[in-house]
């Protein structure tokens, strides 16, 4: 059999893409109406595979790492994205053909001409397009000026146009908004993680890379809140010695292999927390079947970094489209919580407890609402809230030097009259201090991981490994070597013939397997070879055949997909055996009595 | 303890709603920015509970019933909803206050005045508002004229405004569009079901009923495709004898208790297929904890029926808001497939095989493209496709009588020149005939079911059932009696003291439970009574306490939530015992050695 990954030039990619549609993995949406670029439907096999990957992710992040799971709306009002920065900064540069008016993402037009075109500034892009004399790929026309195009889908909530809203481009924002509540639900313990699995939406200018660049996609994001001043991160010990492939932004052309601990201590990776989640990500990717030697972590160039990120490493996997980002692990520092505090006036802090309570000089501001009320009327409370977020020591200094104290409220910047403020300083026993947590975010593109998993599981052979197994349909013999735990269908159930009492044995076996939560495929027609071939194509790891001997010896045959080896197992044990094989509690070698090899 | 359901007048509802927010079940979205009506966040407990309900749904529909799972985008281009009928008909009547301009859903203003206001026509609504002299509930102002308001959220795909699109109001449409592909994937066998779980979106005019009327909500829908001419439906036998409460639209004021088989044979329920899925729905609702006596099926009034439905029965559950629709089970007949065939020209049929091939006179039309091409140019293929959907016998008659043959293509109605058509009739051996399948759709509102489950699980008591158990926080002692299989946290793990070697015993127990896929809660602080109380509030069915005796006898205590009874179990067995209790393989009574009762 020939190996993975798939090279688009050798024909396997198109072979695979036809199989994926025919077998119900995924296919373009709305095809009967001509299709719409950037939208895909997951068919029966794709949906199960995707759900299995998500289940693994939840096992890892929610059950093992203990992240709190949340589930928030896709639609959010404009105010959220005004403060998160997405309204201003979440955009791509667009240019239109002056002849055919087709729109293009400007940096993509330079993809084959210069490297990292997506990290160029507007001016650099403009110059590069000009210098390279780039024309419209559609009609050869001249390209128009660059425009900034915001990638969020816009809509309106309610009956008018006074409440603009957007579909979320990432699931993260709702988690930040809920931080105060989640921190309380977590009984004010920090660090802690919050996870969300759901759809993300990006109105891509001209999406063209299949499932890798969709306008609507499945994400699984974790936001890990921690104290940036805490000493070390004990959990990092788990991955301290893990060797990974790293492409740092100081040397973007070379991948080096290094232990995570060295990368952190040399300052290449900015913290043990970031290093830890790179370790978790690496281990998760292995667990769903991505080979170690097809993975690397690449650090974003400074010009490529999202507006919220202080540092970011992508897990990239080598696919038929080249090295593709699957997971982004970003250090978002305190950016988002601080932005939403500014935007809403809501404090978003956690408590840093001292080892022992200490005596401390504490300065507090109090506001006299009797003075503030008549001046600001309805806005007085807002002014009060804004004052309470100021640093009391700084206000004290302003008052002492006679400088104005200013705050920003919804109607703009206003000056707070000094007579409404009083400053008190006293010695107090304090148990800790408040701080804005930092955030490390591992953000997984589930559809992309699915593509990577499929490409690395797909193998072709001239002919079947067993003489009686025929290819189902035209072309080579195809096998998808998905791990049992993520394969969509776990077990085929085949009565050798649809008569002579064999279905009466087979039907209860299928029923019992399903009762045990396993997806099965019952097939009683055609040659056994073709039935195996059909299951091999969709990656079914095991098939059970009920033959004439079964009536005498009470045993059935289990065939393992990757070796074609068959072993006989008593019907009474079959559900436990398949279940243990699928959950990887046992391996096929643990069974005895091979009948064919 | 006092019983469920919650009556909004006795204070329990507000008690519960505070608990649900404090404990992280669900709460209004975007609260730090003042909130937006109709949007809710699921917190850590709500997300787990919702996922557990969805898992049960998948177990039932995908694993047990064998429905094919798909997962399609939320955004769909306008053309889909033009042909599905949603663009024209998926709307509510809106009226605005002429003084304060607040918009209202007209029928909701009549809710307390007349029954079934939502089934009134536009004229009837207008008259009813006038006759009852309904004023603006906000400011007492007069109400303006009625306007039709489409409930779909609108957006645009791509860079211009030439590709309008909508957020799906139901997940069903994509399933219909994919029918031809899914039928092939299913190897052209019928009947079969297709399931989709995901978000639905409805831009409600003024949503006010919490989780029951959201603008974005979780749905789980099944579309069951079948041959309406098939004799009976053998699977119906499973529920034939099931007695259910039925409110037929011929007698909408009375609920009668009846076997499903009688209701079908009397013609009250229109088919065995519909009756079967009412049975499945009933059994599912029981399985997630909704009491039999709080459920009924209500048939839609003719005026209330959705534009696509031939008949529809709602599963309603009695909640603190009254009888509320949880599931709609609609007979959509061939409506959607036929609409999309008309819209796209794509044939959406299945094959009805004859028991034996028969000799039959078959009329076929063939189109001479050499004639059609020069006349219609680029549209010739479209004309050809449209002709192929015509009934050959009818075309034959038109040609014989000299009437024009007309078809509708994207540029409008066109006449097909008789010279391009030839009709052939021959005797053929045919194996079957094509037909458009009918559809029965069970459509589940997951959030609503979650509310119903919580309300029926919630109990209050003056004080704790055990003397040492204190209420956590103010107010009465609260217990959520969720079934173990759907409760968010499965097991609390409590070392009696956070010292003396007890954590060393407790931590590995928690780790092992999590390895086994169980969500746990580790708590080492405060009195055991308060720790139990905290778990009782979120419905954790079992708690394990590690005490000083554990060090000697290697046993720990398991406490059952609903009885407060505690039993000792060896540490070596604890993971299996908890796992079997949660999956309901064993019940608590199966354990021996009670220590306190």
Q: How many helices of chain A does DSSP assign?
A: 18
Instruction: State the secondary-structure class of chain A.
Output: alpha+beta
By CATH, the topology of the largest domain in chain A is BirA Bifunctional Protein, domain 2
Q: Percent of residues of chain A in beta strands?
A: 25-35%
Q: Biggest β-sheet of chain A, characterized?
A: 9 strands, mixed
Please provide the count of β strands of chain A: 29
At the fourth level of CATH, the homologous superfamily of the largest domain in chain A is Bira Bifunctional Protein, Domain 2
Rg of chain A computed from alpha carbons, rounded to a whole number of angstroms: 29 Å
Mean pLDDT, all residues of chain A: 91
Q: What share of the residues of chain A lie within helices? A: 25-40%
Gross geometry of chain A: globular
Describe this structure in words.
Two copies of one chain form a homodimer. The first copy, chain A, is α+β, with helices and mostly antiparallel strands. Chain A has three domains: 275 residues, Bira Bifunctional Protein, Domain 2 (BirA Bifunctional Protein, domain 2, 2-Layer Sandwich); 79 residues, Signal recognition particle alu RNA binding heterodimer, srp9/1 (2-Layer Sandwich), CATH 3.30.720; 104 residues, Rossmann fold. In chain A, 29% of the residues lie in helices and 30% in strands. In chain A, the strands form eight sheets. In chain A, strands 3-10-11-21-16-15-14-12-13 form a nine-stranded mixed beta sheet. Chain A has a six-stranded mixed beta sheet with strand order 25-24-26-27-28-29, sandwiched between helices. In chain A, strands 4-9-8 form a three-stranded antiparallel beta sheet. In chain A, helix 3 packs across helix 10 and helix 11 packs across helix 12. Chain A is globular, with a radius of gyration of 29 Å. Chain A starts with 11 loop residues before the first helix and ends with a strand. The model of chain A has no long low-confidence stretch (mean pLDDT 91). Chains A and B meet through strand 2, helix 2, strand 3, strand 4 and strand 8 of A and strand 2, helix 2, strand 3, strand 4 and strand 8 of B.
């Amino acid at each position: 059999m020939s190996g993975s990954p798939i090279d688009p030039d050798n024909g396997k990619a198109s072979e695979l893409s036809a199989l994926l549609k025919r077998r119900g993995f995924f296919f373009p949406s709305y095809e009967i109406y001509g299709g719409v670029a950037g939208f895909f439907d997951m068919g029966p096999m794709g949906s199960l595979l995707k759900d299995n990957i998500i289940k693994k992710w939840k096992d890892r992040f929610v059950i093992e790492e203990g992240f709190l799971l949340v589930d928030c709306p896709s639609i959010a009002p404009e105010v959220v994205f005004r403060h998160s920065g997405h309204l201003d900064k979440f955009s791509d540069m667009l240019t239109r053909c002056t002849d055919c008016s087709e729109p293009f993402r400007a940096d993509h037009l330079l993809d084959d001409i210069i490297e990292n075109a997506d990290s160029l500034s507007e001016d650099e892009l403009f110059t590069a397009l000009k210098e390279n004399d780039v024309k419209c790929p559609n009609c050869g026309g001249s390209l128009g000026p660059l425009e900034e195009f915001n990638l969020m889908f816009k809509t309106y909530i309610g009956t008018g146009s006074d409440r603009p809203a957007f579909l979320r481009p990432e699931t993260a924002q709702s988690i930040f908004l809920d931080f105060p509540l989640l921190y309380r639900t977590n009984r004010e313990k920090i660090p802690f993680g919050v996870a969300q699995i759901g759809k993300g939406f990006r109105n891509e200018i001209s999406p063209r890379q299949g499932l890798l660049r969709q306008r609507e996609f499945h994400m699984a994001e974790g936001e890990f809140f921690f104290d940036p001043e805490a000493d070390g991160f004990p959990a990092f010990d788990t991955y301290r010695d893990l060797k990974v492939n790293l492409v740092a932004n100081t040397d973007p052309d070379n991948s080096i292999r290094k232990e995570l601990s060295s990368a952190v201590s040399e300052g290449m990776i900015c913290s043990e927390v970031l290093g830890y989640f790179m370790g978790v990500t690496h281990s998760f990717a292995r667990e769903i079947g991505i080979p170690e030697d097809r993975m690397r972590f690449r650090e974003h160039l400074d010009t490529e970094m999202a507006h919220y990120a202080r540092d970011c490493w992508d897990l990239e996997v080598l696919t038929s489209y080249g090295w593709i980002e699957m997971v982004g692990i970003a250090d978002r520092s305190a950016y988002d919580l601080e932005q939403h505090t500014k935007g809403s006036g809501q404090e978003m802090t956690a408590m840093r407890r001292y080892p022992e309570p200490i005596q401390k000089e504490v300065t507090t501001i109090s506001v006299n609402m009797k003075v503030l009320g008549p001046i600001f009327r309805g806005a007085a409370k807002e002014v009060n809230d804004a004052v309470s977020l100021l640093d009391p020591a700084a206000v004290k200094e302003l008052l002492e030097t006679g400088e104005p104290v200013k705050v920003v409220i919804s109607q703009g910047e206003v000056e707070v009259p000094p007579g409404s403020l009083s400053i008190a300083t006293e010695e107090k026993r304090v148990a800790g201090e408040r701080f804005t947590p930092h955030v490390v975010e591992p953000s997984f593109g589930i559809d992309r991981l699915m593509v990577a998993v499929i490409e690395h599981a797909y193998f072709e052979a001239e002919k079947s490994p067993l003489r009686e197994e025929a290819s189902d349909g035209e072309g080579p013999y195809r096998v998808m070597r998905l791990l049992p735990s993520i394969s969509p269908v776990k077990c085929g159930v085949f009565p050798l013939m649809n008569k002579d009492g064999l279905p009466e044995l087979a039907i209860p076996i299928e029923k019992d397997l399903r009762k045990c939560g396993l997806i099965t495929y019952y097939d009683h027609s055609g040659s056994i070879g073709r039935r195996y071939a059909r299951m091999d194509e969709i990656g079914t790891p095991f098939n059970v055949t009920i033959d004439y001997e079964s009536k005498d010896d009470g045993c059935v045959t289990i065939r393992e997909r990757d070796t074609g080896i068959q072993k006989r197992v008593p019907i009474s044990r079959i559900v436990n055996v398949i279940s243990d094989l699928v959950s990887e509690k046992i391996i096929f070698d643990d069974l005895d009595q091979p009948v064919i090899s």
